[in-house]
# Entry
Amino acid sequence: MHLAILIGHFPPTAFGGAELQAQGWAQRLAERHQVTVLTRRDARRPAGRESRDGYEVVRLPVSRYPGWRTLADLHAIESTLAALTPRPDLLLCFQTFVSGLAGTRAGVRLGIPAVVWVRGEAEYRLGASAFTRWLSPRVWSAAAGVLVQSEANRVELLAELKRHAPRRLQRVRERLTVLGNGLELPAPAPLPATGRVLSVGRLIADKGMDIVIAACALASRPLTLAGEGPERAALQTLAARSGGDVRFTGQVDHEELSRLYREAGVVVLAARRGEGLPNVLLEGMAHARPVVATPCAGTRDLLTDQVNGLLVPADDEVVLASALARLAAEPETAARLASAGRATAECFTWERLMPRLEAVLARWGRP
# Structure
């Protein structure tokens, strides 16, 4: 099967959850299929074609005029797909906009089925945006299949459709499948007695990094923030005022991130919204580290409070600080949660998920 993966950005520059998952799936699918990734050029990779790990990456030019950028993307993607030899049997589109829109639009014109993989809550919170309310149901209805990362995502997406686009509910329901994120299981390392708190993600308001900084200051726990984003300067100012031990690493590569997990005593996700199935929690669990998280979307499918992690309310630094202090004071609890989390992560290895994805692609792809 020839698979074309559509995604707005692709590593090495992009290190978000969707981008890393797209890279992981491309590498593993290429072992059994022909894979072509279509993405935008970026600062480190100009427009053009490159070969990597058994698959091809085609980086497309980006319009300098924001008002025309989406139209230019749609045209460039369709033209590139039409020129591929052989013609793809299926398009796997990461995120509803722009990739899902481009894939379903080009797929109809070229006779190629498209599968849209929803990557976060913002794509299906139809009441929050008139644009999303108009676009997302149309894209999903036009797709051969729709994937979501967790059962919570599936339930919430259908509830949003029932509320805001009921005429499309049944059509999307028939095409909707749950498939989680894949990961590699690292060799387990001993849990450090005085490890740092680690929080990984883009430095944006939705990730709640300000709450993590405040909570660590209250609990007198050293903190490492791994990631980059527009809130960095404000968070650094907040960290300085808090008086806590806060280390900003910026964006790090896979090897450095693994080292940060190994030195961590606990992994925290304090997201306010926007999560699908958070990679940071899966990775923390895979490294056998206790995790503390807010109960947004897919987190609820990963964590059972007090069993394989601790759940805390969003925007509450006092409760988060209490959880962090408890894990420091109760090493046996931390070790128990870490062990249970590792068992959870073992259900999400690439090897376990690959047969399920291939079955989905075979069902929805061209015969």
About this structure: The longest helix spans residues 66-83.
